[in-house]
Design goal:
Shape: globular
Helix content: 55-70%
Number of domains: 1
Strand order of the largest sheet: 1-2
Number of helices: 22
Largest sheet: 2 strands, antiparallel
Strand content: under 5%
Order of helices and strands: HHHHHHHHHHHHHHEHHHHHHEHH
Distance between the termini: 21 Å
CATH architecture: Up-down Bundle
Radius of gyration: 23 Å
CATH topology: Amino acid/polyamine transporter I
């Protein structure tokens, strides 16, 4: 990792707003350098948020939300409240995104506010749990919706589900490695299937209501509990719902590429989050018009069961549409995770080979292969709902830490420019909700939450050995350099270059900056004084 930082800074002298080589455009500039361009306008920004939120969650999580909520009415309330809380969290991230205008999202914010260790733990848990788990769940959902029509009287075989999910991951990894343009076109095509599936579900729900089929939506029936209310289970219902809203913060990963981020970042949030909340709530209402709670809980593919009850001979449309949606979701997640891992490697927090791109295709092949391998390993986990709980708990943990960092930054640095400045009541509301989820989730599922925390804490020794400890044995450095060289030759990749950076004079200074928080105890202590204190 140390060498990765050295190679990175040889070619990349960062300005205060972040690196100019953090992404991988489809072609290099004439001088051999790679630079980010501000090409994401308002429409594209909304597409990033909506496209990343609407994945497999709305087709998988309705079962988990209803099961833990205990009644139809409370389940609908969970979907509405989760959407509102998501909007509050997105507003907090909007302020952070323009105050710390770096790509990398909450990883960059946590690193700059709390220091290198905290940022590394965020990246570490994303590498080990969040992205592999998310991609595994979406891939398993894809395979379930493809195979379910072939097994109308029983569940598809587990081995078949996992094999098809693995094939899906390998195929899309190849597409993303081959061309950024190909990956973008795949995303556009399969987003159409995603929107078609949800529009069809909502329209059929409206038709059902017009026909008087709304028994479970009547107040006396909607709040008829089929199990004893439990505050811990309600917290788990919110975690299941939060999985469906996952991806609302992905626009912050590409802040440096936004056209006029001070305007378009909050505008995209104001448009996208209410739109997704509307779609999610009415999709769940549509499910209830066609299925009883017992039927919904018994279904392993909610949207397929919905289509079978309402579409008759055209029921095949639903599994195909949902499969298209989840296939595109895997593609988008692979693309996003490669950007995050690339950014982490650029900061010296991941092996330097992950910061390399193909010499002609300009795709981050090592980062894509790494995330594909980690997702394939995650497929051995037997219960996808346990995977969702892992993702939800750890995500809320770091969402809360990031929003807490917003309050810390207000206190420590009250005078720094803030083009967007929200009322402090918003982060406080979000933190209270976050605390409620974590406390009661830990109470209800101590083993699941404990495993998530244990995985996160494994990053502490890795950080001190891999990042903080700079004077490693020469034999270790030579071995890592050999592995990096072999990987370069196998993948035909190089470090991206930009004009204006040469030599190694900034290496120690920038590595020291990684380990220091933005909020220093002594305001006058800057990078120069830190560098002078080095032996």
């Amino acid at each position: 990792m140390e060498k990765g930082a050295r190679h990175r800074h040889n070619t990349d002298k960062n300005h205060a707003g972040g690196s100019e080589s953090e992404d991988f455009p489809e072609a290099s500039s004439g001088g051999g350098g790679v630079a980010l361009k501000k090409e994401i306008g308002l429409v594209s920004a909304c597409g990033i948020i909506v496209g990343n939120i609407i994945g497999s969650g709305i087709f998988v999580s309705p079962k988990g939300v209803l099961e833990n909520a205990g009644s139809v009415g409370l389940a609908v309330i969970v979907w509405i409240v989760t959407g509102l809380i998501t909007a509050v969290g997105a507003l907090c991230y909007a302020e952070l995104g323009v105050t710390i205008p770096k790509s990398g999202g909450d990883y960059s914010y946590v690193k700059d506010i709390f220091g290198g260790l905290a940022g590394f733990l965020r990246l570490w848990i994303a590498v080990l749990v969040i992205y592999p788990t998310n991609q595994a769940v979406i891939a398993l959902t894809f395979s379930n919706y493809v195979l379910q029509p072939l097994f109308p009287t029983c569940f598809p075989p587990d081995s078949g589900l996992r094999l098809l999910a693995a094939i899906c991951l390998l195929l899309l990894t190849w597409v993303n490695c081959s061309s950024v343009r190909w990956a973008t076109r795949v995303q556009d095509i399969f987003t159409a299937g995603k929107l078609l599936a949800l529009a069809l579900i909502i329209i059929m729900g409206v038709v059902q209501i017009c026909k008087g089929e709304y028994f479970w939506l009547e107040p006396k029936n909607a709040f008829d509990n089929f199990q004893e209310p439990d505050i811990g289970l309600i917290a788990l219902a919110f975690l299941q719902g939060s999985f469906a809203y996952g991806g609302w913060n992905f626009l912050n990963y590409v802040t440096e590429e936004l056209v006029d981020p001070y305007k378009n970042l909050p505008r995209a949030i104001f448009i996208s989050i209410p739109l997704v909340t509307f779609v999610y709530v009415f999709a769940n209402v549509a499910y209830i018009t066609a299925m009883s709670p017992q039927e919904l809980l018994a279904s392993n593919a909610v949207a397929v069961t919905f289509g079978e009850k309402l579409l008759g001979v055209m029921a095949w449309i639903m599994p195909i549409s949902v499969a298209l949606s989840t296939f595109g979701g895997v593609n988008g997640s692979l693309f996003t995770s490669s950007r995050l891992f690339f950014a982490g490697a650029r900061e010296g927090h991941l092996p330097s080979v992950l910061a390399m791109i193909h010499v002609k295709r300009c795709t981050p092949i090592p980062a894509l292969l790494f995330t594909c391998l980690s997702t394939l390993l995650m497929l051995v986990t037997s219960d996808m709902y346990t995977l969702i709980n892992y993702v939800g708990f750890i995500n809320y943990l770091f969402y809360g830490v990031t929003v807490a960092g917003q309050i810390v930054l207000r206190w420590k640095k009250p005078d720094i420019p803030r083009p967007i400045k929200i009322n402090l009541l918003f982060p406080i509301i979000y933190l209270l909700f976050w605390a409620f989820l974590l406390i009661f989730s830990l109470w209800s599922e101590p083993v699941v939450c404990g495993i998530g925390l244990a995985i996160m804490l494994t990053g502490v020794p890795v950080y001190f050995l891999g990042v903080y400890w700079q004077h490693k044995p020469k034999c270790f450095n030579d071995f890592i350099e050999l592995l990096t060289l072999v990987s370069q030759k196998m993948c035909v990749v190089v470090y991206p270059e930009v004009d204006g950076g040469s030599g190694t004079e900034g290496t120690r200074e920038d590595m020291e900056e990684q380990q220091q928080p933005i909020c220093q105890p002594s305001p006058g202590k800057d990078k120069d004084s830190l560098e002078q204190s080095q032996p």
